[in-house]
């Protein structure tokens, strides 16, 4: 049961899309436009169950967010899926090394994301 | 080196062309969206959009803008799927197309500033990918019965208009101006001829020819002024999309209607009215039209109407922005004015309802408690009024509580030609825009009083600050008079007096802007060439009035 998730991306358009992509889970969605905002949300909400993390963002990007989050001990508790793009493979790998459970690459087919979420939430660590 | 020049011209053409294609796509989409309410999807319209997208795709490819080419290609394939029925046309899909237009327009702007701007549409493509995955979570899938299948072809639209760079028309106007100067020289010649040539028939023939030249020049000028005129719908149509987007985001239903959109006005005015109209329309959406539920309670149709109308009236154009919303309560305004400390309760009680509504044009006035996204941020009616006044227009407001509000703008037909009062100052001729002239008076020197920040005279029950134009422009003045001629001018609510040597008369002048290398010209708004070839400077009334108040008696201050 997925109740609360956090979407971190600098595009308002993508946030709207996730609302539709995640309808099937009937979960509450929190939005952050960059890594800093994501940390703010996590400070206030302690029952987030999944984070969808974009890499390219101003102020604090995905990698920097994970570094901060790791230092605060959040990444270990919470499943994080990296939403990466062409050319950002190194950053994606760094995130995976820091504890992210999986990734999809933009533009992705929603079913790809759904499959990955199901795998991650059921406890398996995705490749 | 030649290559770079070619590229920048090519880029300019591409950008202009692309902007037009995006406009065409947008207006066709708007029509399709309106049409689908009736049930059938118009294949002809879809083909139009595909044609524009196809051309845009090819052009951006030629310019080497691969990301844009790929993005447009994706849009094209999505739309093709809609056309052959494999994809349903949902609200979300419409939104993604409108959003694509926005994004592409932004890219065009960026490219105009920096031809090497990197373009990236990954996020937009991600969303499109989601939409075409046909996820059932859409929930908005609408199926449209199709009419007969058609071939995809590029349909070019025929028009009998020609795009002309505005500068070319300005050049034509200059040439006519020179013609007029030469014609005036002929007049002087005519007088001399009358003295020396005995043969009357030659003189008559000369006079007739010179008069015909003058008539042709006048007609030519009128024709050129007409060529500079555009139908006001050029501006009106820009608001269709805006009203649609705003009404959706405000949860309101609003129809935008046009009336008299073929009415023509000079390009110079068209360039200026877009902004004020934008603010007025946003106001109407935000404060005017009520939400459907509230409207039904008042027995009004759930959808509100905003009507933009234009018509000619003598030498002006009247543009109105009318809504059938909740209107403005004069008493509410009175209270607000007192609450904000703008007036005291006695003053507002003395005002009639009409005047009370004009208070809305005072700075800092807003009757809406929340600062909303669209009309918050301090863009008040005072700014609109100032803008309209700045190009010699007038704005008025009328309203009936519960029935609606109408803003009426009265604008000159052109900003290029004005009626001016010609005056002489220390041997130089100046032009004062007649629209700002209130009256001209003779004042005895001993009635001019010195005060701390300048000079003033008494005009009936008011004190009028004055400025001596000869001193202001640093022109030597030989005569000392016992009386002065003062031209009383006004700008908005402010008044001032300009001291001149004598009044020459009224005439129409063509305004020419001053070249930039001249730098700051305090008190001058432009120049004009007189019939005898001399240059007369046009005074900037608003700027001069400010100088009178601040006691700046010299242009350097």
Quick summary:
Chain A has 127 residues and is of the alpha/beta class. Chain A has helices at residues 12-21, 35-44, 62-72, 74-77, 89-97, 110-121; strands at 4-8, 28-32, 50-54, 80-84, 102-105. Chain B has four domains: 2-138, HPT domain (Four Helix Bundle (Hemerythrin (Met), subunit A), Up-down Bundle); 167-228; 231-328 and 367-412, Histidine kinase-like ATPase, C-terminal domain (Heat Shock Protein 90, 2-Layer Sandwich), CATH 3.30.565; 417-549, OB fold (Dihydrolipoamide Acetyltransferase, E2P) (Beta Barrel), CATH 2.40.50.
Report on this model:
The complex is a heterodimer of chains A (127) and B (557). Chain A is of the alpha/beta class. Chain A has a single domain, classed as Response regulator (Rossmann fold), CATH 3.40.50.2300. Helices cover 44% and strands 19% of the residues of chain A. Chain A has helices at 12-21, 35-44, 62-72, 74-77, 89-97, 110-121; strands at residues 4-8, 28-32, 50-54, 80-84, 102-105. In chain A, strands 2-1-3-4-5 form a 5-stranded parallel β-sheet, sandwiched between helices. In chain A, helix 2 runs parallel beside helix 3 (62-72). The longest helix of chain A is centred in the C-terminal third of the chain and has 12 residues, at 110-121. Chain A is globular and about 30 Å long. The mean pLDDT of chain A is 86. Chain B is α+β, with helices and mostly antiparallel strands and 557 residues long. Chain B has 4 domains: 2-138, Up-down Bundle (Four Helix Bundle (Hemerythrin (Met), subunit A)); 167-228; 231-328 and 367-412, 2-Layer Sandwich (Heat Shock Protein 90), CATH 3.30.565; 417-549, CheA-289, Domain 4 (OB fold (Dihydrolipoamide Acetyltransferase, E2P), Beta Barrel), CATH 2.40.50.180. Chain B contains 17 helices and 18 strands. A 6-stranded mixed β-sheet of chain B has the order 10-14-15-13-12-11. Chain B has a 5-stranded mixed β-sheet with strand order 2-4-5-7-6. Chain B starts with a helix and ends in an 8-residue tail after the last helix. In chain B, 27% of the residues are buried. Residues 136-157 and 369-378 of chain B have low confidence and may be disordered. At the A-B interface, helix 1 of A face helix 5 of B.
